[in-house]
Amino acid sequence: MAQEDVFKKLVAHSKEYGFVFQSSEIYDGLGAVYDYGQNGVELKNNIKKYWWDSMVLLHENVVGLDSAIFMHPTVWKASGHVDAFNDPLIDNKDSKKRYRADVLIEDLMAKYDGKMDKEVEKAAKKFGDSFDEKMFRETNPRIQENQKKKEEIHARFVKALNDNDLTELRQIIVDYEVVCPISGTKNWTDVRQFNLMFSTEMGSTADGALKIFLRPETAQGIFVNFLNVQKTGRMKLPFGIAQIGKAFRNEIVARQFIFRMREFEQMEMQFFVPPGEELAWFEKWKAARMKWHKSLGMGDHKYRFHDHDKLAHYANAATDIEYEMPFGFKEVEGIHSRTDFDLTQHQEFSGKKITYFDPERNESYVPYVIETSIGVDRMFLSIMAGAYCEEEVEGKDGKKESRVVMKLPPVLAPVKLAVLPLMKKDGLPDMARAIMDDLKYHFNCQYDEKDSIGKRYRRHDAIGTPFCITIDHDSAADQTVTIRYRDTMKQERVKIADLKHLIGDQVSMTELFKSLK
C-alpha cells in the first residue's frame, strides 16, 4: 500500500475511533486546529506523563515549571521573535496556494532519496541474500546520478539559508522545475518572509490597550524564571527546568494533519550549564533523548538524527530527532545548544542582572543552555503512525479476514484492559463488573458487553487496548478468566487474583524508566 494511502487511512481511523477530531467540525472546521477525542486525550496524557516523569523523577537536578501563555511584549523583542521569527513563503500564481519555500526544496531532495531507495529495493529483490547495499549505492550509475543532483541542491540550499538569500531559494525552485501540487504549474511569485506570531490586545480600551503576543514557544517562560527557580530551589549548576504547555504559530502552510498546527503543545527542558561545558552536555542529551524515543519499541530503524543545515543565530550546535512518518522522515524533537543568548538578552532588555555565582569557580557568569524540545502533537502522530497496522488473520471456519490493530506501547495505550462478559446473563455481567471495580483504581479499564466477543475484540484492537479478559461460565467456579493479548491474539487462562500483577507489570512505566539509566 502506498504511504499516502496509509496516511489517509490513519487520519480517518483517528476520527472514527475517537483519537482526533477537526476543531469546530459542525461549523465546517477551523484550519490546522484539532481536538483530541476520548482515546486521543488519554494517549496524549500518557505521552506527557512518560516525558515529565522521565525528566523530573529520574533527574534530581531537573525541576518543573508552568509559565503563563501571556508574557510582557518586551520578552519577544529580547528573544528576537518580533524581528526574526519568520518563514520564507512563496505563492503559486495559478492555484493561489502558498507554500514554505524551504519545505518545497526539502521535499525535492526527499524525492531523490526516494528514487535511490527504489533502486535499492529492486536490486535487493533481484539479488536476494547476496545483495550488498553499501557497494550497490557506491557503484550504481543511477544512484550516483541522483546522489549528485541531491548534493548540488543541498549545497545551494544551505548557502541560501545561511545568506538569507530569498532570491536564490526561488531560483532553486525554478531551476529544478518544482511544480505546485494543486495546479501542476511552475508559475511562482518571489519568496518573502512572514512573521508567525499571533497578536492581541490586553486592556479595557483600544487607546489604552497593550499589544501582546500568544507565545510561539514555551522556552522563554523558563528563561525569564531562571533566577526565581534557581534561588527558591537552591539549584546548583548544572540543572534543568522542564515545562509542558501550549504555543501558537500563525502557520500559513499548515498541513499533514496534526504535524503542523496553529495551536500545539510542547514539552521542553532547558538545561543550564557552565560556559565551556555546553557541547559535552549537548552530546549527552542527544544520546539520552534518542534512547528515550527508542525505548518505546516503535522500531530503532525509524529514528535518525538530522543536523541543522542552518544554525539559529543563538546556537552553536543543533540537531533534530526525526521519525519516519508515512510522508517521510520528519522532526519530532529538537536538541539545541543555545549558548548564553537568551539569558543575556533578557538581562539587557530588562535591566536586571541574570547571573549565577559558581562557588567552585568563585565567579559569577551567565549560564549556557542546552534545550530539548518535543512537539507533543508530533510525538502523538509518530506513535499513531508507528502503531497502525492492517493484518490478515484467521477468522471463523479458518477463513482469512482483515483486522486493523493499533500496536501502541502498552504503557501509552488509552485503555489498558477491556473487561468482557461472554454473555449478558447468568450473572456474568455482575462478576465482570466486580473485577472491573477492583482493577479500575490501578489502570484505565473499559467494560463492554455489546455484540459478539469477536466484534468486541476488533473494537479494542482498533483503539490499541493491549489486554482483553473474558468472563465465562467457568469463571465463578474456578476464579479464572481468559486473557487475550492484542498483538499475538494468543489466549490463556489466568487467575482473577493475578490480573492486577500480570497487567500492571506490562502497563507500568517503571520498567521503561529503569531501561533509561
TrEMBL record:
ATP binds at residues 249-251, 259-264, 331-332, 375-378. Keywords: Aminoacyl-tRNA synthetase, ATP-binding, Cytoplasm, Ligase, Nucleotide-binding, Protein biosynthesis. Pfam families: HGTP_anticodon, tRNA-synt_2b. Its EC number is 6.1.1.14. One of its GO terms (cellular component) is cytoplasm. Residues 156-421 form the Aminoacyl-transfer RNA synthetases class-II family profile domain. PROSITE patterns: AA_TRNA_LIGASE_II. InterPro entries: aa-tRNA-synt_IIb, aa-tRNA-synth_II, aa-tRNA-synth_II/BPL/LPL, Anticodon-bd, Anticodon-bd_dom_sf, Gly-tRNA_synthase/POLG2, Gly_tRNA_ligase_bac, GlyRS-like_core. Substrate binds at residues 100, 217, 264-268, 371-375. It catalyses: tRNA(Gly) + glycine + ATP = glycyl-tRNA(Gly) + AMP + diphosphate. CDD domains: GlyRS-like_core (cd00774). GO terms for molecular function: ATP binding; bis(5'-nucleosyl)-tetraphosphatase (asymmetrical) activity; glycine-tRNA ligase activity. Belongs to the class-II aminoacyl-tRNA synthetase family. NCBIfam families: glyS_dimeric, PRK04173.1. PANTHER family: DNA POLYMERASE SUBUNIT GAMMA-2, MITOCHONDRIAL (PTHR10745:SF8), GLYCYL-TRNA SYNTHETASE/DNA POLYMERASE SUBUNIT GAMMA-2 (PTHR10745). Homodimer. This is Glycine--tRNA ligase.
